[in-house]
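User: Predict the full complex structure for these chains.
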Amino acid sequence: MTHVERHPLVVRMSHWLIALSGMLLLFSGFGQMPMYKRYNIVKIPGLAWSDNYEITLWLHYAGAAVFTAAIVFHLMFHFRKKEFGIMPRKGDIGESIQGILAMFGLGDEPRHEKFQAKQRVIYAIFGSTALILVVTGMIKSYKNLGDIVLNPMFLQWVAFIHTLAGMFFMLLFVAHVAALMLYRPLIPSMFTGKIDRQYAKEHHPEWHVD
Amino acid sequence: MNISRRTFIAGSAAAGALSILPRGAAQAAIKGDSYATLIDLHKCDGCVGKSEPLCVASCRQGRKNDFPKPAKEQLKDYWPQKKHEDWSGKKHLTSRLTPYNWIFLQQVKVGEQTISIPRRCMHCDNPPCAKLCPFGVKHKTPEGPVYIDHSLCFGGAKCRTVCPWSVPQRQAGVGIYTLWQKYLPVGGGVMYKCDLCRDRLSQGMSPHCIESCPQKAMLIGQRDAIVAKAKELRQLYNGDIYGMGENGGTSTVYVSPVPFAEIDKALEAQAQRRNTKNTMHLHHADNMLEKQNTLAALSLFSPAIGAVAAIALTSKDSAKGGKE
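Assistant: Here is the predicted structure of the two-chain assembly.
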């Protein structure tokens, strides 16, 4: 066997559901800010509808339903299977710094398990931001259901946090896609689930693939 | 200024001059004891013989300190657009809503009858303007009024787009965006509209427009009492009601001896004759939020879908893949 399975089907499916719905949420969420008309996005062929708040709200709700369900599924699925390899551990920050320095030829690369310390830290940041978006988004959805009047200052903070977390999520998403360039051999595994066994042995020596 | 529960109650207790008074503490929902207003088009004569309607004049006089004061150097185009919204040179305009005019009077002939209609924010029960503000700086209060925090509003004008009557109006060159507009082209000013004189309500006084009306064509009071009064007048006039069902319900109820559909048709015909684009209508408006309630509810229910799927897959132990 020249390849080793890195991501089973259920993991790939939940990843892509979160990724695709996340992209839809980013597009429709930014569309909920009054910017697509001002910055001429509406003039891009095929996007004349993008400044219609009813359409972007519909897309945002649809994206939120998939995103939220997939995140809860992800958390519950791995919790029940007791798979915690991606959860950050003590010492991950230091090891992440060591790994970043090694990328520039400063020192040795730490011996990685299935996931690098950097990946575990990024997962925690990405995941926390997503959870903040889910919780604040659900409050925002709830108050839209009818003549529900919550404390205005509470709603102001919820809206503010949701919007800022959305912007941060956008930055994380861009960083995530950019980082793929550093780990090109891992990209096929997000589609096929498999990576080269030799690559795994060299770069993840503590991930016992044999 | 906030209408805290305490000041609201105190205000209500002190409001001896009002005909119908809110009596209790408003709760975190639209309750029967929240504020509502009634506008009786049978009584309103448009202040015939006066230089301008007193509701408009008193609002402009009483709220002048709340109107925008843009600095000239801050009046810049909304890059990359080559325009900005500046009403500071048109402060005198009283024929429409502007940042300097929060109530105006429409007059239209329906048959032989001239109908005068004071227009301002309807203070909706489920206001898309407030609920969809990206930074949450537009507030729906349990007491009824919908207001904008002018110190935090960027002036994106989304609230105007989602309002069925396009009530909020934007003034460039003022507000928090002036701190960064030189470096970052984000924001367009501040949105302005009627806030039902929240500061006066909190002191037990009624809004300027209502207090000044010589015909007593406008009333403010407890929602339940206002609705009852409106229904009574509708029966008396054999007329029509507007505002209770529009946009999911509002805190402003119009009563007229003439059906509102006819008035709206006359307004449209008048707009075409005058070749004006921005006539404020009296149409039946659906609430854009409530049209999407099913999908909103699905997004709230979605955690359960994810949880059930995870339990189902792990219970059967049918998930493929190795241990980490």
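The longest strand of chain B covers residues 104-110.
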